[in-house]
Structure formats: C-alpha cells, structure tokens
Amino acid sequence: MAKLxxxxxxxTYSPKIVPVKDLSLAVEDGEFLTLLGPSGCGKSxxxxxxxxxxxxxxxxxxxxxKNVTHRSAGDRNxxxxxxxxxxxxxxxxxxxxxxxxxxRKTPVGEIQQRVAEASRVLDLDGLMQRKxxxxxxxxxxxxxxxxxxxxxxxxxxxxxPLSNLDALLxxxxxxxxxxxxxxxxxxxxxxxxxxTEAMTLSTKVAVLYKGDxxxxxxxxxxxxxxxxxxxxxxxxxxxxxxxxxxxxxSHALLGEARVPLPQVTEPQPxxxxxxxxxxxxxxVGKQPDCTAVRGQVFLIExxxxxxxxxxxxxxxxxxxxxxIANTTLKAGDELVLSLPPQQLHWFDIETRSRIPVQPExxxx
Amino acid sequence: MSNALRTIRGREHLTGWLLLLPALMLLxxxxxxxILRAFWLSLFIENLGxxxxxxxxxxxxxxxxxxxxxxxxxxxxxxxFTVIAVTIELVLGMAIALVLNESFRGRGLARTIAIxxxxxxxxxxxxxxxxxxxxxxxxxxxxxxxxxxLQEPINxxxxxxxxxxxxIAADIWKTTSFVAILLLAGLQSISEDLYEAHAIDGATxxxxxxxxxxxxxxxxxxxxxxxxxAQSFGIxxxxxxxxxxxxxGSTEVVSVYIYATVMRYLDFGYGAALVVITFLIxxxxxxxxxFLLSKAQNxxxxx
Lengths: 364, 303
Ligand SMILES: Nc1ncnc2c1ncn2[C@@H]1O[C@H](COP(=O)(O)OP(=O)(O)OP(=O)(O)O)[C@@H](O)[C@H]1O
Ligand SMILES: [Mg+2]
Hints:
Chain A: Keywords: ATP-binding, Cell membrane, Membrane, Nucleotide-binding, Translocase, Transport. The structure holds 2 protein chains of 2 kinds. Chain A is of the alpha+beta class. Chain A has 8 helices and 20 strands. Chain A has 2 domains: 227 residues, Rossmann fold (3-Layer(aba) Sandwich); 117 residues, CATH 2.40.50.140. Chain B has a two-stranded antiparallel ribbon with strand order 1-2. The interface between A and B is medium-sized, with 26 and 22 residues.
C-alpha cells in the first residue's frame, strides 16, 4: 500500500550544479533500494528530495500513490537516519527515540511500549537514561535507528548510516540491519558509496553517476550484466578488467589472441570495442572453448584468500588482472590465462553501453 | 604533608601551586588589596564631619545603611533597570541572532553593523541619546510628533518615570548587539541536521525553537545574563552622562549614589560601606548564575 515512487525528479541548484537530472524509481513494500554511486553523484540530494528537506525543481514524489511533493517533511510520515545520526545532544536516549512520537501527540502508554519494543530489538536496554555523548559510535547508530523504527513510518530513508563505524562494527551492524529491515514490510531507501553494503543489503540497486541513473536492477544482475562501462568498473572488487581492443573481421585482438565478437555486433565504425572481464573469472592455463592469453606476471598482491596477479599481455601494451587461489607465481613468470566466453562483457566504444550477447537476453 | 609529597600527584599539585604563585600574587595586588582596603575603610567614619580624619565606628556605617532610604531607593531603581534592560536585551538579542544566523546576501556586513553599538564608547552614546530625548530639539519627539502619536513635545529626561525608561532604552540600544553576537556564537554551534531530523519528526519551527534551539543555547544565554547582570547592576557612565541620577533621584542607580556620596559629599567611610554591600550582592548573584551555568552546560553537553 505504502509504496514510494519518484517521477522525473530534477534538482537544479544552478545551471552548473544539477545533482539529480531526471530520476524515476519505484520502491514497493518490503523492498530495499540502495542508491549507489561515487561521492558527489547526488545520492544525498535524492534522499533529501524524497524526505522533503529539499524541494525538487521538477518532478514528483509519491508515497502510497499520494502526491507529497508539496508537503512538508513532517507531513510525509517518513523516517530518516542521518549520516551524522543527528541525535539531540541535550536529550536522553529515551527522549531522543520518543521525540517523534511526542511531537505527534502519541499517548504516553503507547510511547513507552513502542520505545521499549525498539530498545529490545536494538539491544538498547540500560542505555535509556544516558545522553548521546556517553555512547559509543555503534550505540549512537542504534539509537538513530530506534528513532526511525518507533515512528512506524511509510518509508525509511537512510543516508550512509554505517560510514562512521569502524570496519568490523560496520560488518556486524550491516548484518543486523539486514535482519531488521527484512522484518519490516516498509520500503527502504538506503544511500551508500560502499558497494558491499549495496550488494548485501538490497533487493534493488540504483547506480547513479553525475546525476544520471546508470542502472536499476537486482544486485545479482548489476554484477552479472552491468549496463555500461561505468557500472562495470564501479561494481566489483577488485575492479573488472576493461580493455579497449581493435577489431578484425569477427574477432577482437588481445595481443596475439583473437577473441570472437558477439554475433549481434555490427562491425564497429571505429574498429574498436571494449572488452570487460572480472579478475575472478579468469582461469589459469588453457581451458577448452576459451580464448587463451599469454603474458608475463609483473605484480602479485596477496588478498588473503587469493592473490591478485597482474600480467602484461604478450605483444601488447595491455595488462590483465586475475584472482588466483594459492598460487606459487612470482613476478617475471610466464602465465597463460583463459577467458571463458560466457563471462565476457562487451561495451560500445562510443556510447560505453553494454552490447548484448544473444543468449544473455534469455538468461536470468 | 610529607605523605602528599611522596606521591606523584602530590608533587604535581605542589608544582602547580608554585607555578600559579606569581599570577596569584598579581591578582591579590590588583583585586584583593583594594577590596580589603575598602572593607577596612568601611569600618571608619571619614567625612567632612571628622575633618576627613578616620574615626573607628565598627559596623556603624552598615547600621546607618539600614535606615538610609536613598540607598534602598537606589538599589530598587538599579534592580528595575537591570531586570527590564536584561530581559528585553535577551529577547531582542535572540531575535537578531536568529536573523543573523540565516544565510542571506550581505550577512557579513549585517553582522559587522550589529556589533557597532557595542563597540562605540558609552559616554558618546549617552550624550547622543541625551540629545535624541531632548525635550526641545530631540529627534524622538520630532518623529512622534510627525507621526501624530504625540500632540505636544515631551521632556523625556525631565519626568521621573520617563527618564528611567529613556536610560533603559539607551542601554538596550547599546548592549543588545553584544547579547546578539554572544547568542549567535551559540546558534552557530547547532548542527543543521538536528533541525532537519526534528522537522522530519514532525516539529513546527516554534517547537524546534523551544526543544532544540533554547536548550542548546542555554549556556550562552546564561553567560549573557551573567555578563549583563554584572554590568547593568554597576551601570554608571550611561546614567551619569544622560541624567546624572535625576530628575528627583528617579534614575539614581547604586553607582551614581555611591559616586555622589564619595565625590560630592566626601563621605569616604560610608561610601566604602556602600561599595562593600553592592559588591557582596553582585558576588552572590554571579555565584548563583555561575552555578546555574555549569548545570546548563552539563545538560547540553549531555553529562
Ligand atoms: N545546497 C546546495 N547548493 C548547491 N549545491 C549543492 C547543495 N547541496 C549539494 N550540492 C551539490 O550537489 C552535488 C551532489 O551532492 P550530494 O550531497 O547529493 O552528493 P552525494 O552523492 O551524497 O555525495 P557523498 O557520497 O559525498 O555524500 C554536489 O556536487 C554538491 O556540491
Ligand atoms: Mg551524501
């Protein structure tokens, strides 16, 4: 019932600063949408437009199919968790969490009960009479979540809620967040520039870049079928190998190797094409049905469970990076890598967008 | 003592006191000595009646004070002056600070202008206001007459009630800017996020002012009250220049009365006793305010 929709949203601060250009999205009940993108791409601005803290230049915001574009933030029944948590420093944890309910004139008994419930879920018992300055970062974060949860809003908005936590705590809270919001049947819009958060938490990811929506898809599809070269390079760690290759007849030339082009591709006017392959998909040695590339290792980075091996491709300026488990390779060694054809991504040299390969349109 | 010296903390304390000693001695010389000297003098009668020779009277001057209607009157006038001036200054100062805290074109200039009245010399301001309120040539009368609010010119500084109101107005004009700048510093330390979070929680601007702004700037408000109370209670120059305490003693604040006692009637012993009592009242009020301040600071900083 309470789904969130934005249509043709635009925010223009000045002719040069247009952080949101023409954004249309819908988030259903129980869906978890992540806005993902590099710093300054307009994620926070989008969230603030949805929250009503900022008026859009054009476009509409609908909550539960009601147009709320011109309603004030307090009238939209949304809850927002700020990056800074924005806890009221002079109020106790209890007062912080209860603030929104008190302002909406909720009966005292119900306030008590809802705060107690949130406190149990978030494990805040015993902290209720403390002031925020006497809490750890993780505890503050939970208080901020509590303040949102007790409101039982129509939409949850979260702006990089984990970025102030250390790496270990972040992982733990991320798991808690996932459980917490799975139990709430409410649309969630979550902003982050951390792709791991986006991939683990969301049911849908919107990748933004310079105010434009690059791709809106499930995390799996964003990973397996990046819509363009930007998404391909932005999602996945270590980064996808993206190689600009010359074409010859129906093949792209990778050094001495000849990679068959996807059948649908017209011969590129410039005679060039971008090939993408993730380091984790490259295989060691000559594999059947794969194009093999020969080269010389020049760098090995230990990532713990595997090594990231960089190699110069023979007879070219190109380099390839591959993830290889327990390798004994050293710099200077010869290496043969195979490119499994179903793991290749092709991008147009001009438009940078994905060139579909025939069977993939059916897959997924 | 030897025990204290043995612990590291004890030695640190001793070092601390040693380092403080020069500053303490300077303070004693500059503050403690004159205060004690005034107290000592207050135990003597030293006036024209004794040919300006000190004659010991014990607490005689203080007993005299109990029956001195003019003293109580001046204390009452000072209190009225202080309470009204400080209250209005706080309200106006807060309003101006809220405006200056918004971002608008020319805000820097507005902030600079706002501090000007405070930066000008008081005697100059008092003289200007004396002319503004002048019965015959004053601008204030002129404005009111032209607007049709007054039919006849009024001698503002010549009527007892009006004279006090006029001095209060001049004081408000001068020191509101000080209060505003002080409160502005407090407002600027409040993060915009808090207001946004509160707005999303459903608060109206007035509720945000009551529940966020006021509690968060309470330390600055109390500092302003403390400063302004101490200054206003001892106000001298503005009143002395504008009215000299008149008409009919209606603006005779404590400082003006003490000045008259000492400099006009040359009653040094009694004047010293007046100073001592005024001083004690001030110290008591400042102590209370400082106590409240530390409590408020603990609250906002969340202890
Ligand atoms: N009030 C404003 N006036 C003018 N420009 C603004 C304003 N707010 C944001 N911008 C600009 O809009 C762009 C997008 O800002 P936004 O805060 O949405 O980025 P973001 O994606 O959240 O980045 P980050 O990951 O660093 O938080 C930035 O270039 C920023 O400078
Ligand atoms: Mg942001």
